[in-house]
Amino acid sequence: MLIPIILSGGAGTRLWPISRESHPKPFMKLPDGQSLLQKTFARAASLEGVNEVLTITNREYYFKSRDEYQLAKEKFPGVSDPFLLEPCGRNTAAAIALGAMRVAEAHGRDALMLVLPADHLINDQAAFAAAVKQAYGLAARGNLVTFGIVPDAPETGFGYIEADKHVVKRFVEKPSYETALEYVESGRYLWNSGMFCFKAGVVLEQFKIHAPVIYERALSCWEATRSKMPSGSTMMEIDAETFAAIPENSIDYAIMEKSDAVMVVPGSFGWSDIGSWNAIGDLTVPDEAGNRVIGEAVLVDVANSFIQSEGRMVAAIGLDNVLIIDTPDALLVADRARAQDVKKVVQQLKLMGHESHKLHRTVARPWGTYTVLEEGGNFKIKRIIVKPGASLSLQMHYHRSEHWVVVSGTASIINDDKELLVRTNESTYIPAGHRHRLENPGLTDLVMIEVQSGEYLGEDDIVRFDDVYGRT
Question: Which of 106, 196, 221, 296 has its CA 20 to 30 A from that of 464?
Fold first, then answer.
């Protein structure tokens, strides 16, 4: 039995302003309209013998992940999609240890795990499936198997694996350009892909040997998690207190670089970790001047550049080797040679306390979306879209009042001790301190305009009393 484990997390700071903490890299739509997460699920679900794909992700990403999977699962109706939900990030060692415990309990210690990051792109599914079959055979004999990518350029953003056929000699950190060039020319080195295959029981034994503290604390966390969840639950929230006690470490440092049972499967299946805007640009066909464009753009004397715009026309004149990424609330302009430095912008935004490192103007919620249309001193205007049958939490704000105007649909509203229906072109007022709830009882989207006013309008000014999505 082969159980793919999708690890979905990470902010993808080099792909700001599209990738943000609340909308990280796996949810980014590629030029074909699919997200990296959708592609990863489909890639895993289509492998021979797979009838379950386990996803380990942050609790905040659960509902959005389910929405993404609904679009992909139509082709794989027989594949289940359970979730392990992390309360915070502890790197890959903790996630894989807990994933192995879940697989071992549900399917036995001999069940094989295929660990796949959610933010990779693979273009040749047939070649990938062949590599997985090779890894399957090696892992079935008790090995820890990693996938190495045959390099086609001296990349400095990847770790490397020195190998002799399937035997791993050593793992190497990200090298300088000169060293990377030597590695590629030697033919002995592979890019470290971060994908793995092993038996659940084997990797747990390796944790015991090489990372005993991680193992013991992960075991305590798994026992605490199981005690809170019904048997057979397909969505398990990992116990926060015991999970925070697991040392933060990667699977590479914790086990792979220490174990003598590691083997590698070399692969050439069109792999990319989509680690920069240059990698995104490479997914589109260039024009005669080497420009790649997603969206609308007018270019005059522009060459070798990548332009992406979500809604506005972009005009550029006299540029060469430039990135232009335009979103409704942020614009990135950079030398393509400095694409890896975009993460430094995110670091500065965090230091400034600017919300654009975390949120887009349009934010997904389990019940729908909200879009910030305008804001200023003591006011904020939002467009709120609530899915049919969905409802917001029963909540209260200390510092702001809200005026709701229904644009289309009908809203069922609790406003303190009143229950009312508000129809198109009608409105209601929610004073600060009032308990309130918004629900869409209709069969089409409910669209509203919300005008907030008050001394503090931050998203953290919310007290939830009841919530169908478990966010109280």
Answer: 221
